[in-house]
Design goal:
Layout (H helix, E strand, L loop, with lengths): L5 E5 L8 H16 L3 E4 L5 H12 L4 E6 H8 L6 E5 L2 H11 L2 E4 L4 H15 L7 E4 L6 H12 L12 E3 L2 H10 L12
Helix pairs in contact: 1-2
Bound molecules: adenosine monophosphate.
C-alpha cells in the first residue's frame, strides 16, 4: 500500500489571533519531520507558514518551499528550506505544490488559505485527482469554511457527498494519526498530469 510521503500544508501568512494557531503549526512541522514525511508549503518565513517550516526544520525534516517570484519580496522567502522552488506565477506555484504532494492539510489562515483549500477540493470534486484532504479545525477556526460547504449542500449547490471530499480533524495529534494510516493515491492517477 503506498504511504503518504509528502504533505502540502496551506496556512496563514499571519500568525492569527490565538497562540494555539502558532503552536499547531510548529507541532505539525515537528510531527511531519518525525514521521519522515516531507513538508511542501508556500515557502514564506512569516506567519504560520514560517512557524510550520521552522518546526519541521528544527526536527530535522525535509522542507520544500514553493513561492512565486513576485511574492519572494513580500513574504520573504525562508532561507532555510531544504529546497526553495521559485515559480513564475501563483498558478504554477499551486500546480507545483499539487504535483509534489500525496496529501493536503489546511491549518488556520486567511483568504489565500481558503483559495488554496477550495481549489484542491474542487479539483477532487471534478475527479482530477484523488489525494486526501484534511482540514484541521484548531479551536473551531475552520467552522466558517465548513459551514460554507454545509450551506451550499443545504441550498442545493453541492451534493451531500461533497462531505466525502475532505476529512476534518480537531488537532495535530488526530491529524497525524490519520496521515500515517492513509493510503496515497496511485502514482500517475492524477488527470492534471
Ligand atoms: P493567507 O491565508 O491569505 O495568509 O495566505 C496564505 C498563503 O496563500 C500565502 O502563501 C499566499 O501567498 C497564498 N495566497 C494568497 N492569496 C492567494 C490567492 N489569491 N491565490 C492563491 N494563493 C494565495
Amino acid at each position: 500500500m503506498p504511504e503518504i510521503r509528502s504533505v502540502a500544508v496551506f496556512c496563514g501568512s499571519r500568525v492569527g489571533a490565538s497562540p494555539a494557531y502558532v503552536a499547531a503549526a510548529v507541532a505539525l512541522g515537528e510531527s511531519l519531520a518525525n514521521a519522515g514525511m516531507r513538508l511542501i508549503y508556500g515557502g514564506g518565513r512569516i506567519g504560520l507558514m514560517g512557524a510550520l517550516a521552522d518546526g519541521a526544520l528544527a526536527a530535522g525534516g525535509t522542507v520544500i518551499g514553493v513561492i512565486p517570484d513576485f511574492l519572494q519580496r513580500f513574504e520573504v522567502a525562508h532561507a532555510g528550506c531544504s529546497e526553495l522552488i521559485v515559480t513564475d506565477t501563483m498558478h504554477t506555484r499551486k500546480r507545483r505544490m499539487f504535483d509534489l504532494a500525496d496529501a493536503f492539510v489546511t491549518l488556520p489562515g486567511g483568504l489565500g488559505t481558503f483559495d488554496e483549500t477550495f481549489e484542491i477540493l474542487t479539483w477532487r470534486q471534478l475527479k482530477l485527482h484523488d489525494k486526501p484532504i484534511l482540514i484541521c479545525n484548531i479551536e473551531g477556526s475552520a467552522a466558517a469554511l465548513l459551514g460554507l460547504i454545509e450551506d451550499s449542500i443545504r441550498d442545493g449547490f453541492a451534493p451531500p457527498d461533497a462531505r466525502a471530499l475532505y476529512e476534518t480533524v480537531a488537532g495535530v495529534p488526530a491529524l497525524m494519526q490519520r496521515l500515517v494510516r492513509m493510503e496515497a493515491a496511485p502514482a500517475g492517477d492524477s488527470r492534471l498530469l
